[in-house]
Design brief:
Helices cover 81% and strands 0% of the residues. It has 16 helices and no strands.
Length: 383
């Protein structure tokens, strides 16, 4: 196997390992409520703790990789985080489950912080697009398998065995990637200057356009995760679906993979601003539809999934074009806001879910999505 092919396959497996671990509890939140005696808010914290810790650690991990190497941080992150996943099922109390998931999220941060930089430094221009595409595909499919494997296993076992089985699969992906990933040849260590890095990161908020995209990442990801966190409760409790059948709703993620690719073509045709605003509008309509019956809810899930991934694809790509300096730091700030939104809004959504009826819960997040659409509308003028 050539060095390029080894690197490409290794990064595909890294994507599978990391993102199957990150969302492993999301699809079985109702089961955790029933079997551990957690509230829906506490159950949702098993997701928010992981994404929040990842958000807080992704920038430090990126800075450390400048000194110690992308590959080293990447592989330690993947193997350590998936290894911790084997401990998650042994939690006896809700707080223990949340704490271990937080630790897992912190360890996971090294991979998304360094993977694309590793590929950019080590592969030639001809091989790079395919390798990047396979890595992104791995993150998408990994997020899907991390939800489908536990929901399948929980039907024939307990939630503990379901999470343990999912963690074993993730660990196997991580170990295989360790064996395949070639040693870096083009990395040159740099001195770490925290004051300079911090100034570069925070300085991007002074740019109004970048600040708007950072807020877009925070609101869109926070709303998206909140919807998927609690739609499983809706599908099981209100519509009477079995947990394994409700878990199949995560297959709608594949529509997001399609829309991410289509968003690029739309940007080329009508520009970033109109694509972003149109995608946010579809996101809003999809959320509103989830207040209806089962067919409307499923249609709404497809619509807001397509809209969200198009928003994320457009906004993340636009950050690199708007930032005229310190582009790596601008991208890191976007990633931080993306996962921090997942954690903070996702945690608050649990409180809302416990306090409000389903129509009011949907009304709240429809309003948030409308605010997001209004925010993106202002970007049309600057496109």
């Amino acid at each position: 196997m050539t060095r390029t092919r080894r690197a490409t396959v290794a990064m595909l497996l890294v994507g599978l390992a990391i993102f199957s671990s990150l969302y492993s509890t999301q699809a079985i939140l109702p089961t955790l409520v029933d079997n551990m005696g957690l509230s829906s808010t506490e159950a949702a914290m098993t997701v928010s703790a992981a994404t929040g810790a990842l958000a807080l650690c992704v920038v430090p991990a990126s800075i450390l990789s400048e000194r110690f190497g992308r590959g080293r941080i990447l592989l330690i992150s993947a193997v350590a985080a998936t290894g911790v996943g084997l401990i998650v099922p042994f939690a006896q109390e809700g707080w223990q489950l949340i704490v271990v998931r937080g630790l897992q999220g912190a360890l996971l941060s090294g991979a998304p912080a360094t993977a694309m930089a590793w590929l950019s430094e080590e592969l030639d221009d001809k091989a790079l697009p395919r390798a990047m595409g396979l890595y992104i595909a791995g993150t998408s499919v990994g997020g899907l398998t991390g939800r489908l494997i536990p929901t399948g296993l929980v039907e024939i076992s307990t939630w503990r065995w379901a999470l343990f089985g999912s963690a074993l699969v993730s660990l196997a992906f991580a170990i295989t990637s360790w064996l395949l990933l070639p040693t870096q040849r083009n990395f040159r260590p740099k001195s770490i200057h925290l004051k300079t890095e911090s100034r570069a990161l925070l300085g991007h908020w002074a740019n109004r356009d970048l600040a708007l995209l950072f807020l877009t990442a925070f609101l869109s990801m926070g709303t998206f995760v909140s919807m998927y966190n609690f739609l499983t409760f809706r599908l099981i409790d209100d519509f009477g679906l079995a947990p394994s059948l409700a878990g199949l709703a995560f297959l709608f993620y594949l529509s997001g993979t399609w829309s991410s690719a289509r968003a690029g073509a739309l940007v080329a045709r009508i520009g970033h601003g109109k694509t972003l605003c149109g995608s946010a509008a579809l996101f809003t309509v999809g959320i509103a539809l989830c207040a209806g019956n089962l067919p409307l809810t499923l249609l709404g899930m497809i619509a807001f999934t397509v809209g969200f991934f198009a928003v994320h694809s457009t906004a993340s790509g636009w950050v690199g074009q708007i930032a005229t300096h310190d582009r790596a730091e601008a991208s890191s700030m976007y990633v931080f806001c993306y996962y921090f939104g997942s954690s903070v809004v996702g945690a608050c959504a649990g409180l809302l879910f416990d306090a409000l009826s389903w129509p009011l819960f949907i009304a709240f997040f429809t309003a948030v999505a409308l605010a997001l659409t209004a925010l993106t509308w202002t970007k049309i003028k600057t496109d």
